[in-house]
Amino acid sequence: MSNLIKGKHKTIGIITTSSPIDRLPEEKIEKAYSYLRNKGWSIKEAPTCRKSEGYLSLRNVKERVKSLHDFVVDKDIDVIMSFWGGTNTNQLLPYIDYGLIKKNPKIYVGYSDTSALLLAITKKTNLVTYHGPAAITYSKPDLMEYCYKYFDKAIKGGEWSIEEPKKYADDLYFLREKDADKRIFKKNEGLKVYRGGNCDGEVVVSNLQTLLVLAGTEYFPSLKNKILFVEEAEDEQAPMIHRFFTHLSLLKDFKDVKGLVVGKFMENSQVSQDNLENIFSEISTRFKGPLIYDASFGHTDPIFTVPNGARVKIKSSSKEKIKFYYG
Question: Quick one: pLDDT band at residue 55, thresholds 50, 70, 90?
Answer without folding.
Answer: low
